[in-house]
Amino acid sequence: MAIMKKTPFYRIILFSLFTTILSLDVAFTQSANDYYMDAAAKLLNEDYEGAIEAYDKVIELIPDNALSYNNRGSAKVELGDYKGAIKDGAEVAKG
User: Fold this and answer.
1) Torsion (CA) 10, 12, 13, 15 in degrees, nearest 10
2) Is pTM, for the whole model, over 0.90?
């Protein structure tokens, strides 16, 4: 019997959010949407530093985008930047 690798829960959530965003008419500017898709792909591929940089660009363009703060916080947790993740979480709570 083959042992299956368990998919981390956050990956399932991120994939769900990623596909939902693709199906919605989101009010992103084209460049913000490009950065967001790039960031989501990097996060799913465990390129956490790259994801943080791309989410930084999305947040710069759309400062009240709670989903970007949430996902950037997830990447920060993976890198052990818990203070940064808490700050991002506080921005999500504001939204």
Assistant:
1) 120
2) no
